[in-house]
């Protein structure tokens, strides 16, 4: 058994039961070949996910020097102009950028994920705290939404800079019909989720409805695409993410008419999307957005996309997708490969001061 698979079993076992493990193994007997053909997709959605994945992958490199950043030079994102960048180490780690691609008429807010032990300190702070850190200082929108404490600390480290950048863009008439997209991998996916809700609900003065009344039209549409995201908050928060009042979806394809504002990509048996586990004293966690399960096919990693069912009302995950895999197979290696993302970062987990080199 691989070491990381064993780690996945141990993490699951801390909060699960042998009966849950047996149930997971039983569900896993239903292979992807038994799934309805309408659930399996390849090209236009895979192409779209690879596009956003390249933005997420670029955050692990020195994107400040865009012309010499390997992932930044993919043909579909090479012409991106950096509008704003941030990098913080203490008290919480956050790194990313706001970019503008004029050819595609899109604005991208990209967050870097976990590569070093300092980042994982945020991941370990799993107690839930009220959402949101609103603009007027009030505690929450509805009084019940709660999110992962560590993820919120990381996002708040960059929150004001991101908000200022998007406000400036919203005031620029030349960008009025551009779309807005939040992307991230791992810890970056969690921060992207918080930023998406923060922009579309927490700060309505910058979002569609109120902005249009003030004569603004940016953004023409808005989306959240995450790769290997951990669970971010409780069911009440997840309902905010999935709310119809968030930005209008951008992902339209002729084959199945999918129109989603939020897409959550999971690769095979990646352990991270199964965490944090819900605990009685620290809070229950759920996933936001429709899962798209990236499976390995024909010898190519993350090359087959399965669209999963989505239950925004109760937070239940599709047992025919990653939720139905056995914890015996969960591993960290699948976390490093996603559509458009190929990371080689395992040794960095051992270097506690590495993030400081990027500040």
From TrEMBL:
<dbReference type="InterPro" id="IPR029058">
    <property type="entry name" value="AB_hydrolase_fold"/>
</dbReference>
<dbReference type="Pfam" id="PF01764">
    <property type="entry name" value="Lipase_3"/>
</dbReference>
<dbReference type="InterPro" id="IPR051218">
    <property type="entry name" value="Sec_MonoDiacylglyc_Lipase"/>
</dbReference>
<feature type="domain" description="Fungal lipase-type">
    <location>
        <begin position="108"/>
        <end position="277"/>
    </location>
</feature>
<keyword id="KW-0732">Signal</keyword>
<feature type="signal peptide">
    <location>
        <begin position="1"/>
        <end position="16"/>
    </location>
</feature>
<protein>
    <recommendedName>
        <fullName>Fungal lipase-type domain-containing protein</fullName>
    </recommendedName>
</protein>
<dbReference type="InterPro" id="IPR002921">
    <property type="entry name" value="Fungal_lipase-type"/>
</dbReference>
<dbReference type="GO" id="GO:0006629">
    <property type="term" value="P:lipid metabolic process"/>
</dbReference>
